[in-house]
Amino acid sequence: MTDSDTLGILKELLGRPQKGVSPKVDVAAITGDTRIDEIGLDSLATLDFLYDVETRLQIQIEIADLVALDRVSDLVAYLEAKRTG
Amino acid sequence: MSRLRCAWYRIEAAAACGLLFLMARAPLGVVLGMARLAARAAFVLWSRRRRIALENIRRAAVCADEAQVRALALASFVAFATMVVESIVARGRLTRDNWAAHVRLRLSAETEALLRRPGQGLIVASAHLGNWEVAARAISMVKPLLVAYRPFNNPHLNKIAHDARQGEHLRLMSRLEARPLAFLRALAAGDVVALMIDQHATRGRVAVRFFDRPAWATKSVAMLSLTTRMPLLFAFALRTGPLRYEVHASGPLECARSGDREKDAEIITQALTDEVEKAVRHHPEQYLWGHRRWRH
User: What is the pLDDT of residues B49-93, one digit of tens each?
Assistant: First the structure.
């Protein structure tokens, strides 16, 4: 799986309709340069998203690592390292 | 915003400022007496809220007869008024040096160790039982605390309340603020994140049973726990006398992941709701019954 595949998975998960939550995410506008804080998720939708990412990629995200990341490209690289490491 | 509403908001805010000033300076006995009077007046005059409280108590079936239902509803009004004024008074009187004389921590060895361990993030679920404002202030004396709150419609009142409730190590964050990673950053920094779980939730919710009746509850606490894997406690502060409290905490709760997000959130939220119910059954007079909890 490449970084581009991982970004695709993230976009797919972000674009999924959420039960009782309206994330208001413009998935098409998300690129590697997008800041994680500015994806458009509220705090609860962020938690749902992280749970789904962990389940889909079969990894465990460390919160201390996550909060140090700035942009989507950083997140993609982190997830790839977790998945392959 | 209309001019009339704007003017009303300013009057409300000015009245709140005046009350805060007076309550912080008047003798505690006087303030508590005024709170009891105000609560009795509200019980008579605020018919909608009284009806909700009475109906909730009947639904919960915690009283043997109608006289007890009424007495409990009145006690709940008095407890709420007392909670508000004591929270204001406590702001000026509870300090890092004297808080332990006012607040006793009744925690298990495991819970206390988690609370006192430097760098250990903690998620605390709480309920509108006893004095939740003092509970937050007391816990923040041990470990920095971030509390999520629901803001008032009146922006002036909101600023006053926000400033009055914050403390040296007690930060408040409006639920409407778009800072998606704020809770995660606080936990990663080893702080406590506290959220209330006992009110009707309109979104991001799961179905639970509370006093054996269907209700909606926020799944935020459960999701925070599932995502961060930080220990999850249920805690509340009971009032034991004037400016005297006992903080009780249970947990850490079991938070298993199955891969089914909604199901996992439901199981954890139900376990927390059961803890709320257990605490309310022991101390029903200190619970906020005047909230429309069952809207399933």
Answer: 999 999 999 999 999 999 999 999 999 999 999 999 999 898 888
* Structure-token pair, residue B245: 């409290």
Q: Which residue has the tokens 């994330």?
A: A23
Q: Which of A24, A41, A47 to mutate to test the interface with B (most CBs of B within 10 A)?
A: A47
C-alpha to C-alpha distance for B69 and B53, rounded to whole angstroms: 9
CB-count burial class (<10 Å; 0-12, 13-18, 19+) for B17: middle
Q: How far apart are CA B96 and CA B168, in angstroms?
A: 10
Q: How many helices (H) and strands (E) does chain B have?
A: 11, 9
**Residues in Cβ contact with B146 at an 8 Å cutoff, skipping those fewer than 6 apart:** B171, B172, B173, B182, B183, B186, B191, B192, B193, B194
Among B263, B196, B252, which residue's Cα sits nearest to residue B228?
B252
Q: Is B205 on the interface with A (CB under 8 A)?
A: yes
Q: Name the residue in chain B with its Cα closest to that of A68.
A: B185
Interface test with A, best of B173, B200, B202, B227 (most A CBs within 10 A): B227
Q: In this complex, do B188 and A20 lie within 8 Å of one another by their Cβ atoms?
A: no
- Nearest chain A Cα to B221, which residue? A44
Give dist(CA B63, CA B70) in Å, integer: 9
Cα dihedral value B71, B276, B203, A75, nearest 10 = 150
Place of tokens 């041990």: B142
Task: Read off the pLDDT of residues B111-170 as tens digits, 9 standing for 90 and up.
Answer: 999 999 999 999 999 999 999 999 999 999 999 999 988 788 888 888 888 888 888 899
How far apart CA A49 and CA A52 sit, in angstroms, is: 5
Query: Which H helix or E strand runs over B237?
Result: strand B232-241
Q: Which of A21, A41, A63 sits opposite B184 (nearest CB)?
A: A63
Residue of A nearest to B230 (CA): A63
Find residues 17-46 of chain A whose CB sits inside 8 Å of chain B. 19-21, 36-37, 39, 41-46
Q: How many CB atoms lie within 10 A of CB B110?
A: 13
